[in-house]
Amino acid sequence: MNGSRHYTSYLAVDPGLTTGWAIWGDHHKAHGQDEPMPFLDLAEEWAALARPASVMVVESYRITAETVRKSRQPWSLEIIGALRWIAHRHGVDFLMQTPADAKAFGHDARLKRLGFWVPGQDHARDAYRHLALALAKHRRLPDASDSSCTVGDT
Question: What is the band of 142 on the pLDDT scale with cuts at 50, 70, 90?
């Protein structure tokens, strides 16, 4: 990823058996949660239509001793690999973020202020956490301390 690049279109992803996603750009936003294959179809379509200044922001997934003990989630790694390939194929930048960084920045109160709060859709909400963090890093996010800030139209 080019740190100085001015992105105009974002696809943020919380990969898993239920994959959360959020799209932002061109004065619009959309979100949802899907099973892996329908989501990958959506990601492929988004990337095929994406402009050169587009980026996929994906939650990283690391296997640790604790992960092995709790639950193995091969689908998360498979989705990340498929997304990396889709991004490469369509010339879209690919950025990964840790769940901890996204949750620390994109806390519930901030998501609500930004219009990124999605009741009942935990995975889509996590994708919005990654989107908010990426927008802030790229200086595209309004001042989140301003309770009047909104981002795009639904």
Answer: low
